[in-house]
C-alpha cells in the first residue's frame, strides 16, 4: 500500500505539471517539449528521472521539487518585471522618436529655395538639436538595456540573451538603437541639405548686395 501511495503522489506531480506549465496556451508553439524534456529542462535530468520512473516520492525529492519550483517562480517574477520595464521603455522611445521626426515634416512642405534666411537658420538649429537628442537617447537606451540584465540564466532560453530572445523574429537585435541610428542619419542628411541652402542663400544675397 505504501508503494502504491508513493506512486500515486508521483503521478499527481506529473499531472499537476501537465495541467500548469504544459497547459499554457503558447506552450506548444513556443516549446512543444514532451513531459520528460520539460521536466528535465525545469528541474534537471536527475529530478525528472525520479518523478517519471521512480517508485517512491521521497522527502528529498519533495524538497528538490519545492526548491526548484521556488527558484523558477523567482526567475519568472524577475523576468516579468524586466519585460514590463522593456515595454514601458519601448513606448517612451516610440513617442520620443516620433516627436523628433516631426523636425523633418516642414522640410517636405516646400522647396528650400523659397525659404528665408531666418527660416533656414531655425530649421538648421531644430535639426541639430534633434540630432543631439538622438545621441542622448542612444546612451539612455544602452543604459536601460544594461539595467535589464537578469540575475542568472534566462527563465526561457539560456542560449539567448534578453534582446536576442525578445527580438529574434526581427532583422535587428536592438530595434530602438537601429531606429535611432536611421533617424540620426536622416536628420544629419537634412541638416546638411539645409546648410547648403543657407550657403546658397548667403551667396545670392552677397551677390546682390555687392556694389
Please outline what is shown here:
The chain is mainly α. Helix content is 73%, strand content 0%. The longest helix is centred in the middle third of the chain and has 43 residues, at 59-101.
Low-confidence stretches are: none
Number of helices, counting only DSSP H or I runs of 4 residues or more: 8
Instruction: Report the sheet-strand fraction.
Output: under 5%
Order of helices and strands: HHHHHHHH
Rg: 29 Å
Extended strand count: 0
Helix content: over 70%
Secondary-structure class? mainly alpha
Shape: rod-shaped
Instruction: Give the averaged pLDDT, no decimals.
Output: 85
**Domains (count):** 2
Distance between the termini: 115 Å
Largest sheet: none
Amino acid at each position: 500500500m505504501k508503494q502504491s501511495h508513493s506512486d500515486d503522489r508521483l503521478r499527481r506531480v506529473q499531472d499537476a505539471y501537465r495541467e500548469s506549465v504544459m497547459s499554457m496556451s503558447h506552450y506548444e508553439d513556443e516549446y512543444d517539449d514532451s513531459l520528460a524534456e520539460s521536466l528535465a529542462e525545469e528541474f534537471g535530468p536527475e529530478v525528472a528521472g525520479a518523478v517519471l520512473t521512480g517508485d517512491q516520492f521521497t522527502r528529498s525529492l519533495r524538497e528538490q521539487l519545492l526548491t526548484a519550483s521556488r527558484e523558477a517562480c523567482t526567475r519568472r517574477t524577475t523576468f516579468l518585471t524586466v519585460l514590463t520595464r522593456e515595454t514601458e521603455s519601448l513606448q517612451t522611445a516610440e513617442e520620443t522618436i516620433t516627436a523628433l521626426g516631426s523636425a523633418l515634416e516642414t522640410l517636405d512642405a516646400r522647396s528650400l529655395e523659397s525659404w528665408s534666411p531666418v527660416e533656414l537658420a531655425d530649421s538648421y538649429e531644430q535639426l541639430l538639436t534633434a540630432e543631439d537628442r538622438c545621441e542622448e537617447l542612444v546612451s539612455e537606451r544602452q543604459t536601460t538595456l544594461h539595467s535589464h540584465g537578469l540575475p542568472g540564466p534566462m527563465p526561457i532560453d539560456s542560449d539567448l540573451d534578453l534582446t536576442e530572445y525578445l527580438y529574434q523574429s526581427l532583422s535587428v537585435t536592438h530595434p530602438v538603437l537601429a531606429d535611432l541610428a536611421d533617424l540620426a542619419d536622416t536628420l544629419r542628411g537634412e541638416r546638411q541639405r539645409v546648410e547648403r541652402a543657407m550657403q546658397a542663400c548667403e551667396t545670392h544675397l552677397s551677390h546682390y548686395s555687392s556694389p
